Amino acid sequence: MSNPQQLRYSKEHEWLSTAEDGVSTVGITEHAANALGDVVYVQLPEAGSTITAGETCGELESTKSVSDLYAPVDGEIVEINEDVVSDPSLVNSAPFEGGWLFKVKISGEPGELLSADEYAAFIQS
Amino acid sequence: MSDAPRRTALDATHRALGATMTDFAGWDMPLRYSSERDEHVAVRTRAGLFDLSHMGEITVTGPRAADLLDYALVGNIGGVKTGRARYTMICEAEGGILDDLIVYRLADEEYMVVANASNAQVVLDALTDRAAGFDAVVRDDRDAYALIAVQGPESPGILKSVTDADLDGLKYYAGLPGTVAGVDALIARTGYTGEDGFELFVRPADAVTLWEALTEAGKDAGLVPCGLSCRDTLRLEAGMPLYGHELTTATTPFDAGLGRVVKFEKTTNDGDFVGRAALTAAAERAETNPPRKLVGLVAEGRRVPRAGYPVTAADGTVIGEVTSGAPSPTLGKPIAIAYVDAAYATPGTEGVRVDIRGSHEPYEVVALPFYKRQK
């Protein structure tokens, strides 16, 4: 699997797009999606709510388990992906594309985020 | 306990297929090869191939093998005809379930007992203890067999193409020796998926040959390798209990709604068996004061109930507990098996909820199983 070079990554396996007008798209990595197995339910933060880096902001439920979704940055949710709410399997089939989870208007400095290569090394370790 | 997980004879095959492996009862087993949902659907609609070599085989032989098993287990094993199999349980003297088992009668004086991987040692020890005074030999055959299952509507056709055994003459819950893909096998029409299918007990040295032959034979029929993850959702839809979830030492067969497996009339030993007194009392209790009942729950929403989650009434009173839960690929909704108070066990009972991490989600009470194949 390959992690897109233009994205940044958290150690909780979220990815973030480069912010345009301060808004970044967030999803979970293919590595995380594979580890979860078939995702069957996603609970996302509501548009307009604020999230805090490192705190849980939702849930990803797979056949076998439920996992917390962590906020990779501080910010305000501006949009959630309704397609992934109605079809959670997008998280597995297109984790870096149609399976994105939400868009967040980042406030303050992002915390520790990894480059694609750093993330690749992180999940190997 | 030993340190390194045990590996089956098919370990390299699983890795070559890209399986996600998981530790299961001390064995390194395939969890899934691709998508567990696709594997589940393949078994329901076409066919799936499983490595179940972690299951524990115990052979019981001798002139009084039947008497020993009638004494040690709750079923009427002496009444099983050669070539047939029986679902049964082994209980403690106090009535709690030590394991659920399948017993195959291979010959007049030869049986194979198949225990769950996690309980194989417990069952072996109990059978060995209980054999005292019987002219019978209990043999640990866990290392003597690999077990490969082919399950699903296409499985008879697939197996027919690689065996000359009379599969049409092989009934459900029967097993006979034969040759499959040139290797000696005990061919059993059993399984744990709710589908027609076969379980093939072979020498570990023959496992790869058999697996590859079945893979080739099933290619056009859509057979895929399947892991333990889809096996769990398949058995859950079929309403089959799983040891450690629906069945435990704290549960008698009557508490689990499986009192029918306990036979107080047996072919041998005048019906005496380990647990008889306790189970007689449990049967009476179940008659007069029904314990919590095992029911099916179907979600109205999409959140998945998990083992251990409380079942509640509309006012929040806890009325039971989920023992197994998963999203059902066949129903397209989350389902669960749960023990609930008898007053809430009737299908259609209103107001039953599952506490899913603090959110009380509505559930419909249904009769088990959730899924029954068309015959």
From TrEMBL, chain A:
<feature type="modified residue" description="N6-lipoyllysine">
    <location>
        <position position="64"/>
    </location>
</feature>
<comment type="similarity">
    <text>Belongs to the GcvH family.</text>
</comment>
<keyword id="KW-0450">Lipoyl</keyword>
<comment type="subunit">
    <text>The glycine cleavage system is composed of four proteins: P, T, L and H.</text>
</comment>
<comment type="function">
    <text>The glycine cleavage system catalyzes the degradation of glycine. The H protein shuttles the methylamine group of glycine from the P protein to the T protein.</text>
</comment>
<dbReference type="GO" id="GO:0005829">
    <property type="term" value="C:cytosol"/>
</dbReference>
<dbReference type="InterPro" id="IPR033753">
    <property type="entry name" value="GCV_H/Fam206"/>
</dbReference>
<dbReference type="GO" id="GO:0009249">
    <property type="term" value="P:protein lipoylation"/>
</dbReference>
<dbReference type="InterPro" id="IPR000089">
    <property type="entry name" value="Biotin_lipoyl"/>
</dbReference>
<feature type="domain" description="Lipoyl-binding">
    <location>
        <begin position="23"/>
        <end position="105"/>
    </location>
</feature>
<dbReference type="Pfam" id="PF01597">
    <property type="entry name" value="GCV_H"/>
</dbReference>
<protein>
    <recommendedName>
        <fullName>Glycine cleavage system H protein</fullName>
    </recommendedName>
</protein>
<dbReference type="InterPro" id="IPR002930">
    <property type="entry name" value="GCV_H"/>
</dbReference>
<dbReference type="InterPro" id="IPR011053">
    <property type="entry name" value="Single_hybrid_motif"/>
</dbReference>
<dbReference type="GO" id="GO:0019464">
    <property type="term" value="P:glycine decarboxylation via glycine cleavage system"/>
</dbReference>
<dbReference type="InterPro" id="IPR017453">
    <property type="entry name" value="GCV_H_sub"/>
</dbReference>
<dbReference type="GO" id="GO:0005960">
    <property type="term" value="C:glycine cleavage complex"/>
</dbReference>
<dbReference type="InterPro" id="IPR003016">
    <property type="entry name" value="2-oxoA_DH_lipoyl-BS"/>
</dbReference>
TrEMBL record, chain B:
<dbReference type="Pfam" id="PF01571">
    <property type="entry name" value="GCV_T"/>
</dbReference>
<keyword id="KW-0032">Aminotransferase</keyword>
<dbReference type="GO" id="GO:0005829">
    <property type="term" value="C:cytosol"/>
</dbReference>
<dbReference type="InterPro" id="IPR022903">
    <property type="entry name" value="GcvT_bac"/>
</dbReference>
<comment type="subunit">
    <text>The glycine cleavage system is composed of four proteins: P, T, L and H.</text>
</comment>
<dbReference type="GO" id="GO:0008483">
    <property type="term" value="F:transaminase activity"/>
</dbReference>
<dbReference type="InterPro" id="IPR029043">
    <property type="entry name" value="GcvT/YgfZ_C"/>
</dbReference>
<dbReference type="GO" id="GO:0019464">
    <property type="term" value="P:glycine decarboxylation via glycine cleavage system"/>
</dbReference>
<feature type="domain" description="Aminomethyltransferase C-terminal">
    <location>
        <begin position="292"/>
        <end position="372"/>
    </location>
</feature>
<feature type="domain" description="GCVT N-terminal">
    <location>
        <begin position="12"/>
        <end position="266"/>
    </location>
</feature>
<dbReference type="GO" id="GO:0005960">
    <property type="term" value="C:glycine cleavage complex"/>
</dbReference>
<dbReference type="InterPro" id="IPR028896">
    <property type="entry name" value="GcvT/YgfZ/DmdA"/>
</dbReference>
<dbReference type="InterPro" id="IPR006223">
    <property type="entry name" value="GcvT"/>
</dbReference>
<comment type="function">
    <text>The glycine cleavage system catalyzes the degradation of glycine.</text>
</comment>
<dbReference type="InterPro" id="IPR006222">
    <property type="entry name" value="GCVT_N"/>
</dbReference>
<dbReference type="InterPro" id="IPR027266">
    <property type="entry name" value="TrmE/GcvT-like"/>
</dbReference>
<feature type="binding site">
    <location>
        <position position="199"/>
    </location>
    <ligand>
        <name>substrate</name>
    </ligand>
</feature>
<comment type="similarity">
    <text>Belongs to the GcvT family.</text>
</comment>
<protein>
    <recommendedName>
        <fullName>Aminomethyltransferase</fullName>
        <ecNumber>2.1.2.10</ecNumber>
    </recommendedName>
</protein>
<dbReference type="GO" id="GO:0004047">
    <property type="term" value="F:aminomethyltransferase activity"/>
</dbReference>
<dbReference type="InterPro" id="IPR013977">
    <property type="entry name" value="GcvT_C"/>
</dbReference>
<dbReference type="Pfam" id="PF08669">
    <property type="entry name" value="GCV_T_C"/>
</dbReference>
